[in-house]
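Recap from last week: sequence in, structure out.
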Amino acid sequence: MNLGFGSSGACYTIGNAATRVADEWGTLSVAGDELTLHATQHATPGVYKWRFEQGSLRLTKLRDRLATRAKALVTTPLTYVPRREIMGRVPSRWTQHAFVSKRFGYSIHGPHNWTLDTSGPADRFSYTPSPLPALAVEAQDLAQGTSAARWGVIVDSRLEASGCAPHDFRRFFVDGEKVRISVYSDCHGRSLESVSFVHHGRGYRVLWRGAAARPERDYPFVDAMLKSIVFSP
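Predicted structure tokens:
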């Protein structure tokens, strides 16, 4: 089980630790020593009593009609695993080459042996002939008043509607703009990081398609490229 924070508040995922594929995800709420899980896939909530014991989180079922979920949550304690143990390392020259997108009004730095393909609706960065990893950037004008949170929900709902399983949520800054990064561990056999934000009335979406078995290994690579983005004046 993974606990975290999404754009709408506290959230969780439950899945297979070996394959890192989520079977269930949704929101959670805490009232005193009771924790309630609200799954996206069904309307049956699960209510558990929580406590910390020797540095681990232990759950005791109070009310939950889903036997498989209850078994997964109460069998063993939940232990925090630091991300640094599974993150990859970025080569010193990973972001040495500058690319400029005139149609979307930004510049970004990436590996010198990557190419930029603008033949489709998105700017696509990748190393030919290898299809992965790859990064795509696209933007569209939004209706006046559309918030970054609303745009993030729109972007994420497209992926989740296609069967992609949420894995993690992260926050970052792109040229001073606060962005949301939604991570999917199993999206048609690939790990994805979907970055959404709004800049000057445009909704931007940056999509990373990774080759690593664990999405966390790609975090430093994605962050390095996002950090390099600068918008045109």
